């Protein structure tokens, strides 16, 4: 018989599975039909999900419901195939995760592709930690604080992310950058803040 101390933390497990697949709360909400607030409350343990909600979440995450109750085995290595990157796109911007799932993960790597004329957010964002940018293809305009940096293939930028920042592709060809965040105390931030 399970005691209260051994009950699995379903909300935490759902959040872990969501982050491992690179879904923001908004993306998961759109995939499963539950509100962002409802999912957030479930993940924080403030609301117990119904069986129907668990089915919706499992379908959206493409896992069996039993995965929500499984004991998680910590990963020490994450391998991501090029054609299996979890991604999220909005307004001509594609953000693809290059690896997530390590316990207490501190680095959050992405490939960011911007169509001509696309920008990551309308307003600059801020978050704890540091951010590293390396332009792989094309040309991007990166706004950090009061400065504007033009990055072309081979150029890089490293900055403290408490400064307001965003990037845009004002050229006529797609731009691709490698983007690495230093996470905030193991809390992954890239998906939730860098796409409108």
Summarize this entry quickly:
The chain has helices spanning 10-20, 25-32, 36-43, 51-61, 190-193; strands at 87-90, 93-97, 107-114, 130-137, 139-144, 147-152, 156-160, 165-168, 175-182. The chain is α+β, with helices and mostly antiparallel strands and 196 residues long.
Looking at this protein, list some descriptive labels.
single chain; alpha+beta; Jelly Rolls; six-stranded antiparallel sheet; 5 helices
Specify the structural class. alpha+beta
The helix/strand series, from N terminus to C terminus, equals: HHHHEEEEEEEEEH
The CATH topology name of the largest domain reads Jelly Rolls
Taken as a percent bin, the fraction of beta residues is 25-35%
Structure summary, number of beta strands: 9
Largest sheet: 6 strands, antiparallel
How would you classify the quaternary structure? single chain
What's the structural domain tally?
2
Fold and architecture overview:
The chain is of the alpha+beta class. It folds into 2 domains: 66 residues, lambda repressor-like DNA-binding domains (434 Repressor (Amino-terminal Domain)), CATH 1.10.260.40; 112 residues, Jelly Rolls (Sandwich). The protein is built from 5 helices and 9 strands. The strands form 2 sheets. The chain has a 6-stranded antiparallel sheet with strand order 1-2-3-9-4-7, with no helix packed on it. Strand 1 and strand 2 form a beta hairpin. It starts with 9 loop residues before the first helix and ends with a helix. 27% of the residues are buried. The N terminus is likely disordered.
């Amino acid at each position: 018989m399970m005691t209260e101390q051994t009950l699995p933390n379903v909300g935490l497990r759902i959040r872990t599975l969501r982050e491992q697949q690179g879904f923001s709360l908004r993306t998961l909400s759109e995939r499963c039909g539950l509100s962002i607030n409802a999912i957030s409350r479930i993940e924080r343990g403030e609301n117990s999900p119904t069986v129907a909600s668990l089915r919706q979440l499992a379908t959206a995450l493409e896992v069996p419901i039993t995965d929500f109750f499984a004991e998680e085995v910590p990963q020490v290595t994450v391998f991501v195939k090029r054609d299996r990157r979890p991604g999220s796109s909005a307004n001509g911007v594609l953000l693809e995760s290059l690896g997530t799932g390590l316990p207490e993960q501190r680095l959050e790597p992405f490939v960011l592709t911007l169509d001509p004329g696309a920008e990551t957010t309308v307003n600059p964002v801020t978050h704890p930690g540091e951010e590293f940018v390396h332009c792989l293809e094309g040309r991007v305009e990166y706004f950090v604080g009061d400065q504007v940096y033009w990055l072309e293939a081979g150029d890089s930028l490293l900055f403290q992310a408490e400064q307001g920042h965003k990037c845009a592709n004002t050229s006529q060809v797609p731009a691709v950058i490698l983007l690495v965040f230093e996470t905030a105390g193991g809390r992954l931030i890239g998906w939730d803040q860098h796409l409108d």
